[in-house]
Design a protein that fits this description.
about 240 residues, alpha/beta, seven-stranded parallel sheet, three-stranded antiparallel sheet, 10 strands
């Protein structure tokens, strides 16, 4: 596990973009594991800017998102499919047939099974992650087994509250209570993992991930065993690390 400490969110996004673009430019048919939430928004903006300025192509790239709320149609403004199109895909030359986000409706068990097969058939070259204040990655909440694969998730109250504040105008009643998420085992199969964390609110989770015991109480701590994992964290998120 490599920890890169930078000044602030902007520098974290710039460094993460450098790492992501290195994969895309060196492997024009790469499979990208992508994330949603507030953390990657600037990274995606930088990727769009690079595409416009430098012509970096995504026409043969495939993308696979970590998760999706269950109960929201793809066209819903708070669905992760909509988020990805709005924040990234609409301004790239990616083939939308190569864009994969778990479905947020239908038979949830069948969707989990189908998505697992998709991941088996398309090994991820780089998996982008954020981290929750409780140490979750994807929607793998504390207590999720490390051998979990794509599964149905009942969201913890802390996650629902975070998402209500950030994305649902504070209306907690509008936040779905379930999601489909890649499991921790799916994430660990990625050839490279890139985790971004910014802000004081992530400091406890980063300290536990990097320096704490490997435990399902902190799902991200599973990354301690990954052979190629890079954490890009700003000074605030790194503030509780003892061995900087």
């Amino acid at each position: 596990m490599e920890v890169i400490i930078v000044k602030d969110y902007e520098e974290a996004s710039q460094k993460a973009c450098e790492i992501m673009l290195n994969v895309v430019k060196n492997n024009p048919t790469a499979n990208l594991g992508l994330a949603t939430g507030s953390t990657p928004i600037r990274l995606y903006e930088l990727m769009r800017e690079d595409h416009k300025k430098n012509g970096t192509s995504y026409k043969d790239i495939k993308s696979f998102n970590l998760d999706e709320y269950f109960g929201l149609d793809q066209s819903h403004p708070q669905s992760y499919h909509y988020f990805m199109c709005h924040n990234l895909f609409n301004e790239l030359d990616i083939d939308m047939n190569n864009v994969h986000v778990p479905k947020g409706n239908g038979n949830i068990d069948e969707e989990c099974k189908a998505y697992n097969q998709l991941l088996e058939d398309n090994p991820i070259d780089i998996q982008l992650l954020g981290i929750g204040s409780n140490g979750h990655i994807g929607f793998n909440e504390p207590g999720t087994p490390f051998d979990s694969v794509t599964h149905k998730v009942d969201l913890k109250q802390s996650t629902i509250e975070d998402n209500a504040r950030l994305f649902f105008n504070g209306k907690i009643e509008d936040v779905p209570t379930q999601a489909v998420s890649m499991g921790i085992a799916n994430i660990m199969k990625a050839k490279k993992v890139l985790l971004i964390a910014s802000g004081e609110g992530k400091a406890k989770a980063i300290q536990a991930t990097v320096e704490g015991p490997k435990t399902t109480d902190v799902p991200a701590s599973a990354l301690q065993d990954h052979p190629d994992c890079i954490l890009v964290v700003d000074e605030a998120a790194a503030s509780l690390l003892k061995n900087k």
